[in-house]
Structure formats: structure tokens, C-alpha cells
Request: fold
Amino acid sequence: MSQLPLRGWSRLLARRDIGILLLIAVTTAVVGFMDSRFISLDVWLGIFIRSAPTMIVACGVMAVILTGEIDISAGSLMALLAAVMGLLISQSKAALSLWIGIPAVLALGTAIGTGTGLLVSYGRVPSLVATLGLMTALRGLTTIVMGGKNIDGLPPALQDAAKRGWFGVPVSVWVASLVVLMTSLLFYRMPLGRRIYAAGSSPASARAAGLHIQRIQVFTFAWAGFLTAVATLVDVPRLPWIESGIGSDLELLVITCVVVGGVSISGGRGDLSSVLAAVVLMTMIRPVLTFLDVGEMGEKWTRAIQGVFILLAVIADQISIRFLWRKSAKVRR
Amino acid sequence: MTPAPDSDQSPVNRARFDQQSADQQQNSDSGPFRKSIFHDSGFRWWHEVAVFVLLVLVLMVAQELVPGFLNPRSQLLLSRHVWEMALISLGMMLIIITAGIDLSVGSTMGLCAVAFGVSFEMTSSILLSCLFCVLTGFGCGALNGALISRWRLHPLIVTLATYAAYRGIAEGWSQGHSWSGFGASFSQLSRGRLLGIPYPGLTFFALTVIAAIVLWKTPAGKHLSAMGYNEKAARFSGIRVDLNRFLLFCISGTLSGLAAVFYVARFDTAKADAGEGFELDAITAVVAGGTSIFGGRGNVIGTILGLLLIHETRQFVGRYWGIEELKSIFVGGLLISFVLIYQFLRPSGQRV
Reply:
């Protein structure tokens, strides 16, 4: 959309991130007016801590979606990686050193991502089917690996970093900022990032221009797997123990954020800033419901609200595209 | 441009030709003349034969390792687990033939089950509750269909949204509450038999026959596969693509509602978690049965074979190893490997 020749206000309208930030600001103002405790450092730090793993994973899944594919296995992958991490470094299990455990988890995440990428690009399995199959298979594998028991006793160093971190901000927020920085460099400053966009917006012309689309796809899936592993390492130690249900519905949340952030599901269009704003917006739903004091009853509606947000986002996309096309046609004349 | 392999000039084949030649241009690395040996022989049932052989193998191994696995009584007993999934797979097959997908079927079942429970609490009439349950399913499907055909949204993203929304509404509406005690006559709906076949099975077979007739013997069937091969071409040849798509999602939703009735009858419990994970099983069965996920190809016989294969594998794995989670590993693995096999058996160039 941002490529359309537009002037003045309609240029602002075409920017998804500004719309989402406005929505966040309005919600904050309304909730803050009803309960002033909502506008405090603690609440917002909490929101950022909760959104950190989603942001990290979203950076990877967004790359996959930009090439026109989809990855719905992130949540199950996180569960498996958490289980493996527990088995490797937990004091009640193998109790290996962190210097072995952390690289091993990162390597496993990247390896599984690469495998999915190979299936999709060279094996020509549609990504939806491949990751749908992987989603169930990994979830089952996790339960078997853990033997039906929860794992506890992660090294205190890791738990400390995840809970307290540096300067009172947990390590996950620091890592999320780093990942966001790296991803924006990748998307907007590196040739590979432009190739990802090119591969998604028109595969035929990208191929004609000499790009290896299959290699780009393998890279994006590997990147998504790697970032899932990063998110696992920084977020899971926050929990008292590791259970097999970790990361359930994470894939749905991430895809919701990416779609609400205006990334086209057929690839090639969307920017990182809107996706990040969308992550904050979606993470806000639960604290807002808590502050509105709707109680237990309201919490159960979280998923429904998520679904409605996706629908609103895609419908808004359609409407604004039609509207802006008409506008830009006027400018061109 | 290479000449078309099919001399047949029906719109369907022409649509396929368009797509093939477009793809051959794109796949310069695989070469324009690479053809599948299976395609050249003109025999169109390789996939079904492969699934059938695999099914026989699984049954033989199962009979060897689990004595009495194959005897009719235990098979009939095990079949209780399959009918709801079978009903859903039927709608899913029709949608996948048109190159669409419906991820919301399981969540629709959850919402329908809650609708059943709520209306039973209010009216305490089984008949009205069943009606309301199926109507809810129809409504869910119609909403999907309307969004997809009216707004031209991607089916994947719409049904992913409603996958979350319907389950969320079911959870929010029921607030974790579950309804039970619908009476013995209602549970007869899932247990009772006519000619030795349970009622849900009879419903499934009747609907299957209708689907087969529609697919093979009516213009509508040809329209569906034309839509799957090349939607644009189908639109230009006067097929009412949007209307057909809307109706398909209505059918899929209604079938989910029907499946929810049988599901509630089987467990005698209506709860928001009804049908969780059914979308994956249904997609796996349909794809294993040789329906192309890219649209265009698919038939009833393949789907029944795929269903049987998934069902028997699950039951065998469950009974032999006794580990629930192994089943999901098998189902996920089967799904991926079948699409891989399909990609090797397919005629070249037939891609999205």
C-alpha cells in the first residue's frame, strides 16, 4: 500500500502502524480514566515482558509469511524446545552446563526450521500442510520426551536472568529489542531482506531476476525456527516448571499479530513496525480485561476477541485498499 | 511453449493446460518435458491403489500384532470413533477440491455443542436442541462463506480467525460449564443400529452417495474441480464461483453441526472442547485420500480409503503401544509423507 502515490492525509491513512498506535493510545486513555492504576510503569513493564516472546517469534514468522508461505508450528516447536532444554540443563536431569545447553537448543530449533524449509521448498509440500503436520507431531513428541511429567530445577542463573534480568528489566525484553533491531536491519538494510520481499510479491519475476526462491524459503523457515528457540530460552525459565502445554496457541497469537499488523498473507507486503505495534495491542487485551474488572468470566472471551481482531484487520485491509486505490488514481491523473 | 498433452478441449482440461504451461515457464530448472511416468499411462487411480495397498498392509500387521483386531465386532466397536470425523471430512473434501481450506470445523463443533447444551437447558426438548445445533453450524459456515466469497478474503486466514473466534465464543458462552443427562433415547442416536450399522454411519454413507453423484454425474461436480484447477478460467467460463464457494462453506458448517449432535450423543456431554483437533484429522484423511491440496483433483472413494487408513492406524497404534501421543505423531507424519508422495506421483507442472 505504501508504494501507492498518495498525498497528505491519505498517506497517513495508509500506514497501519499509526492506526494501531492510535488504537493503543485510545484504549490506554479510556482504561486509565476508569482506573488510574493502569497508567503505571509496572503495568506497562508487565505488558512488555509478556509481549517479548511473541515479538521474537513474530519476527521469524513474519519473514516466512512475507515469502507467501505460512508457519503454524511455532507453539509446538517451543514446547519441544522447552522440554529438550529442561532435559539438558535441569539439575534434576542431565545438568549440563549452560554453555552446552543453550547452543544445543538454538541448534535444534534452527535444524527443525531448516527441515521444514527443505520440505516446503524442495519437497514442494504446501507450507500449511507441512507445518500443520509438524504441529501435531511435535506436540505428541514433546509429551513422550517428557514422559508425562513436569520438569523443574532449571539452573538459578537462567531463572534469575529471566525473572530479574539487568537493571530490573528481564532479559527477554533486552533480547527482544536486539532481535527487533536485527530483523529490521535484515529487512530494510540487507539484500537478503529485499529478496524476501521480492520472492513474496511476485515469485515469477523474482525467479526471472535470478533469485533462488527455494534458498530464500529455507532461510526464512530456519530463521523462524532459530527465533523460536531464542524465545524459548529467554521466556520459559520464567515459569516455575516446564510442562508439555507450553506455547499452546502461540502460533495463533503470532499469526494474529502478523495479520493485524497488515502483512499480506499472500506475501510481499507489510512492515515490521506495524507488526510490533500489533503485538503490543494483542498482548494488552488480557490486562485490559483484568482492569475493566470483568473477572473470570471475561478472561474466557480472550480467544474470541483475538479471532474478531483478525477478521476486522483483513476486512479493514480490503476496504482501505479499495479506498486508497481510488485516491491514488486521482493523484496520478 | 510446449504443446498440450491433453487433446481434450473441455474447459476443465483447458484450464489445466493454462496452469501447466504457466508453471512450465516458471520451473525452468525442472525442464518443460519432465513428465511423470504414471501420468503417461493414462491410469488415474494410482493414488487410490497406493492407499489401498497401504491400508491392507496396516491391517495385516495389526492383525498379526493385536489378535482379534480384524474381527467384525471389534471393528464395529472401534468405528464409533470415526463417524464424526468422517462427516466433517466429506465437507472438507469438497472445499479442498476447489483449492480452499476450512480450519474452523473443530471450533464450529465446539460452538454447536454449547448451543445444544444451552438450548436443551432452556427448552429441554431434544429435537429443538438438535435443530438449533445444526442451525448454529450452518450459521458458522455461512459466515465463513460470506466473508470468503463476498469480500474475496483468503479462506486460510478467514477460517483461522473463525477457528479462534468460534472456540472463543464457545468458551465465553459456556464459562467452562458442561451439560449432560440428555436421556437414554438420545444416546441411542449414536449407539443404535440399523442393519448392523450405527446411525451416524448410515448418515455418512447416505451423504457420501449424494456427494459421489454430485461430483461424478452433475455439472456442479465439474464446476467444483474447474474452480480448483483455475479459478480465473472458471469465472470466465461462466461458473458462479462465489455462489458455489459460499454454498460449500455452508455445507461444511452444517456437517460440523451434525457431527456435533452425534458427538454430544456419544459422550452424553455438551462442552466447549468438543471436536478439538478434528480439523487436522479431517484434512489429513482428505489429503491422504488423494485429494490435491492445490485443488482440482479428488474423489469420494479416495476420501473413504484415506479415512479408513487414518482411523485404522490410530486405533492400531493406540491399542498396540497404548500411548495416546504416538497417534498424533503418526497422523502428522502420514499427512506430510502423503503430500510428498503425491508430489512425486503427480503429473509435472500441476502446482499452485
Remarks:
- The domain at 9-332 of chain A is CATH 1.10.3470.10 (ABC transporter involved in vitamin B12 uptake, BtuC).
- Residues 302-332 of chain A form the longest helix (31 residues).
- Chain A has 15 helices and no strands.
- Chain A touches chain B through 46 residues (CB under 8 Å).
